[in-house]
Amino acid sequence: MENDTVEVIAIDGPSATGKSTTAKLVAKELGYTYLDTGAMYRAVAYLAENGELRVENSLNLNEIRISFDKNNQILINGVNREGEIRDPKISTVVSKYSAMPYIREALTARQREIGSGQPCVLDGRDIGTVVFPNAKYKFFLTADYGTRAARRLLELQAAGKALGETLESVEKNLRERDKADSEREIAPLVKAKDAIEIDTSHITIQQQVQKILQSVGEVARCKHSLGATRTG
Length: 232
Ligand code: CDP
Description:
By secondary structure, the protein is an alpha/beta fold. The chain is built from 9 helices and 8 strands. A hairpin with a 5-residue loop joins strand 3 and strand 4 (74-76).
């Protein structure tokens, strides 16, 4: 299932805690591949909502091609759908699809395939608990609701997708998704026991990145010396 010899950095946590921005920068700094697993669930939700994918009983990944361009924007069957998958309409339905066992099974298999083949930073909800439970480095990002809603609204405004959205409507979606993602039966959103928790409410993205890079360095040094003790 998992290739332990490859470096995996798992960054989990609820929406709008800065996971993807942080993960992208950490990956860039280390020269690792970045995989946005949430974008994959959003892609499935987008296709299902548009009647382009039937997901009632099974998900045949051969029917769809999900990939990413060099700017980490999602390509569905080769077409850039980054704008579409980030639409608030998709945010309101995505948790329904991500709770479906066959969808999780198919996407988890794809994520393991990608993460086992190369050093990788993956962000999501279940990377450190289910996708790569033996990941060498695990982080769990949190932030208070006010901060998260303000961040997400700014992102939507910057992308021209904030029409009709308010801090209240955005926070409502975040709370509903947290509840659905945390209470689902399979691979719920939960902090892995061995994950390092970082509250991002009052720190900058650069500080988040630094904290993770510093911890990766410390864990690497510690594991190296433990290994040396055991074998020496
Ligand atoms: O962008 P945002 O932080 O709002 O969420 P996302 O990372 O794009 O994830 C969208 C949704 O996909 C989440 O609300 C989860 O329902 C689902 N998801 C998941 O179930 N497992 C993952 N590893 C990643 C995302």
